[in-house]
Write a structure and sequence with these properties.
alpha+beta, four-stranded mixed β-sheet, 40% helix, flat
């Protein structure tokens, strides 16, 4: 059983804004420290950024409007906590406490991901999809149900009828769709809006990639300040995560679909 949402879902719009801000942080600094939370809906977008980076609010507002359209940005930028900053001084150490679980992607999960991508390529509007054994549920905004039915005749499609979606219908928040992003690998930490020093980003990616390679579950834990996790330097885990992020085009692209 798996649920996916597409990049125009309000929660994904929030994730994408946060990801784009992290991309900007890496343009401005080689090893930035940044954590972003976004809440968006009904014409407003609230962005809170804790960071070492000297952002200009105008640049953040430009990102918001590029991704979300004509909304009113409310941007708050504050320095990173000094204790957290000192944790990373001298050598890159694990940026938080946490538990992490990597799980191999199943054929059912991959099938739904492919269906979600296919529908998004066609409609580019808010959508949410579920696959549970033999039941496929498709909720696709700004789309005629009859048209989707021709492509997926056995699916339950828009059960309450054709609908409009997006941030004028629903609010969105960062890291609220972890099941869509991580499938069976969901634990406590979200993937989006954080630099690579943060364990929620690097260790979740590392555990996911290791699980795909081994085709078995991978469970890890860490304490803030750890220099080694899973028997290897944390700096190596960050490098692995960075290579993955770079390979898919950055943090904003990562935010569109999560890990699969």
């Amino acid at each position: 059983m798996i649920e996916k949402v597409n990049p125009s879902h309000p929660d994904k719009i929030a994730d994408r804004i946060a990801g784009a801000i992290v991309d900007l942080a890496y343009e401005l600094e080689k090893e930035p420290k940044v954590a972003v939370e976004v809440l968006i809906g009904h014409g407003s977008c609230h962005v809170i950024i804790e960071t070492t980076v000297q952002f200009e609010k105008e640049a953040i507002e430009k990102i918001v409007k590029r991704i979300a359209g004509e909304v009113q940005p409310n941007v708050v930028i504050v320095p990173q906590d000094k204790h957290l900053e000192e944790n990373q001084s001298g050598i890159l150490r694990c940026g938080d406490n946490g538990i992490f679980k990597g799980m191999p992607i199943t054929s059912e999960q991959l099938l739904l991901s492919n269906i979600a991508h296919d529908l998004y390529d066609k409609y580019l509007t808010d959508g949410k999809y579920i696959l549970s054994e033999n039941r496929l549920i498709i909720c696709q905004s700004h789309a005629k149900t009859i048209g989707i039915k021709e492509q997926y005749p056995q699916a339950t499609i828009n059960p309450l009828g054709d609908w409009t979606g997006g941030t004028d219908v629903d609010t969105g928040a960062t890291n609220r769709k972890l099941g869509s992003d991580m499938a069976d690998g969901v634990t406590g930490g979200g993937l989006h809006g954080k630099d690579l020093s943060k364990a929620d980003v690097s260790l979740n990616i590392y555990a996911f990639l290791k699980a795909q390679r081994l085709q078995e579950p991978v469970e890890l834990c860490c304490a803030i300040g750890d220099e080694y996790v899973d028997g290897i330097p944390y700096t190596d885990i960050v490098k692995i995560a960075k290579q993955y992020i770079d390979s898919i085009g950055g943090f904003e692209k990562f935010a569109e679909w999560g890990l699969f």
